[in-house]
Design a protein that fits this description.
Chain B: Keywords: ATP-binding, Hydrolase, Nucleotide-binding. Chain B: Residues 28-292 form the Carboxyltransferase domain. The complex is a heterodimer of chains A (202) and B (293). Chain A is of the alpha+beta class and 202 residues long. Chain A contains 4 helices and 13 strands. In chain A, a hairpin with a 3-residue loop joins strand 3 and strand 4 (45-50). Chain B has a 7-stranded mixed barrel with strand order 12-19-16-17-14-13-20. Chain B has a 6-stranded antiparallel sheet with strand order 7-6-9-4-1-11, with no helix packed on it. In chain B, a hairpin with a 3-residue loop joins strand 13 (208-214) and strand 14 (218-222). The termini of chain B are far apart. The chains are: A alpha+beta (202), B mainly beta (293).
Chain lengths: 202, 293
């Protein structure tokens, strides 16, 4: 782990990969060091924001002292997301992967996904652990409006759009599952560490 | 009608939002902190009227706000100083001070002109602006589209119950917002190694101009190009307020309260936390210089 300073109120821990990020996030989220206000996991890094009296030195020492539990957090929750696989880009994904559309669906529902981190928009979880054959690039042109509940693929990740927003991911289906609910606490269904099983509904 | 009074919005100027100190602690859900762009000014306005420092207030960009009191309201202004005129219920006008505790009788209107220096003015009302909180905060995050709707003419902003504390002073003798060249202290990194040594020297010595393409998300700066020492893309990583992110154009963006939570362009340096408030008062056309401690 390499720790970089990010101004006077945050540290950026650089890790070898997503698994290490998730493991460190799990450990820190379960027992946040004193003064830490926000922990933002990303693909290779974990940003730790803090406030006085915590100092860069005290937070770095606390982060370095963390020993992530092997196998990740116990009791990570698992959710099922029912999907109608009729997305506008399903045929393009089939062409890009060389898989028939049926096999794209089988691959998407065939593995357990894990939320690695959130970003782009509130409650937008980046899901990893999927079938490697589903790694497709973003669309050449971004859409101005992607409906809430759209199930999508890009850059080795899958995601469910939490709200209507612009977006450049390949849309393969849609779900009625509510992944973002301001009345709920926490408001996001797909939080880092959550395991996700997509199931097909017709 | 709130039993503690309301502010009726008659005009908002270029942009007025409701802000408190934001919603920390949800960065892992993709929710940024948001909150007042000049946190120190919000705190001061609240202290003046005896509120807790983090009570919700109005953040007014470049003046132009006009509100009418429905019920008696005690207010204070902080941040960028605007000419401020109160017109009483029977039409008597008076100028009110900045950083001072003022009484708006029921039916009076308060009109803010354009600040001579600085960008953001905070209007605190004793009891706080009592709109419905979203995820524990009354701040509007304009990037994430979270929080209360932007006030528009006709919006009625309820005032909350008065706090137990009374205003302790009538006036806070704090220096006014700086005009002219703004000097901000930076800490290099976290990605200064993505740039040539020359880039950091340029950043520390050359002036940058605040462009009109600036808002609560960030300030687009115009100046000498900051050259990269390497190509390629950075996997997106967490961002902070004050980060100087450098896209391929080489022209840095200084992130403010509603910055994206993660970004894929390298951050050459970060403005010190205490100087981010001053950066939030920089106006388009103003020059900024960066120095290291």
């Amino acid at each position: 782990m390499h720790v970089r300073h990010c101004g006077g109120s945050a540290l950026l821990a650089e890790l070898d990969g997503l698994d290490e990020v998730v493991a460190l996030y799990d450990a820190l989220a379960e027992h946040p060091p004193a003064g830490v206000t926000d922990i933002v996991p990303a693909a290779r890094t974990l940003l730790v924001r803090f406030e006085p009296p915590a100092t860069p030195q005290s937070v770095e020492a606390a982060v370095r002292a963390v020993r992530p539990a092997p196998g990740g957090r116990t009791g990570a929750c698992e959710v099922r997301i029912p999907v109608v696989y009729d997305g506008a880009d399903l045929a393009d994904v089939a062409a890009l992967t060389g898989l028939p559309a049926r096999d794209v669906v089988a691959a998407h529902t065939g593995t357990l996904w894990t939320v690695a981190f959130c970003g782009f928009a509130p409650g937008f979880g980046y899901l990893t652990g999927g079938d490697a054959r589903l790694a497709v690039p973003r669309r050449a042109e971004s859409r101005v409006r992607v409906p809430a509940g759209s199930v999508a693929l890009a850059a080795g990740f899958s995601a469910v759009y939490p709200r209507e927003s612009p977006g450049g991911w390949q849309l393969i289906g849609r779900t009625d599952a509510v992944v973002w609910d301001l009345a709920a606490d926490p408001p996001a269904l797909l939080r880092p560490g959550t395991r996700v099983r997509f199931t097909e509904v017709t | 009608m709130s039993r503690y009074g309301m502010l009726e919005v008659l005009a908002t100027g270029p942009m007025t939002t409701v802000q408190d100190l934001g919603r920390p602690g949800r960065g892992d859900l993709g929710v940024g902190r948001s909150g007042a762009a000049d946190r120190g000014a919000l705190r001061l306005a609240n202290r003046l009227v005896g509120n807790p420092e983090g009570a919700a207030a109005l953040e007014i960009t470049l003046g132009g706000l006009c509100v009418r009191a429905r019920g008696d309201v005690v207010i204070a202004l902080a941040g960028a100083a605007c000419p401020a005129t109160v017109t009483g219920p029977v039409g008597i006008r008076r100028q009110i001070g900045h950083h001072s505790v003022e009484h708006l009788p029921c039916g009076a209107t308060l009109r803010l002109g354009t600040p001579a220096r600085g960008l953001r003015t905070y209007l605190a009302a004793r009891g706080g602006v009592d709109v419905t909180p979203v995820l524990g905060s009354r701040s509007t995050d304009i990037l994430a589209r979270l929080g209360p709707d932007l006030p528009v003419p006709g919006t009625l902003l309820p005032i909350g119950p008065p706090p137990a504390a009374f205003p302790a002073v009538d006036l806070a003798p704090v220096p006014e917002t700086a005009g002219g060249e703004l000097v901000l202290e930076i800490l290099p990194g976290p990605r200064d190694d993505w740039f040539t040594p020359e880039a950091l020297r340029v950043l520390r010595t050359e002036p940058y101009e605040v462009t009109a393409d600036s808002n609560r998300v960030g300030i687009r700066l115009r100046g000498p190009v900051l050259e990269r020492a390497r190509d390629g893309e950075l996997p997106s990583e967490g961002m902070v307020p004050g980060a100087l992110q450098v896209p391929p154009s080489g022209q840095p963006t200084l992130f403010l309260a509603d910055h994206p939570l993660t970004g894929g362009y390298p951050v050459i340096a970060v403005v010190r936390t205490r100087d981010v408030d001053r950066a939030a008062q920089a106006r388009p056309g103003q020059c900024v210089r960066f120095r290291t401690a």
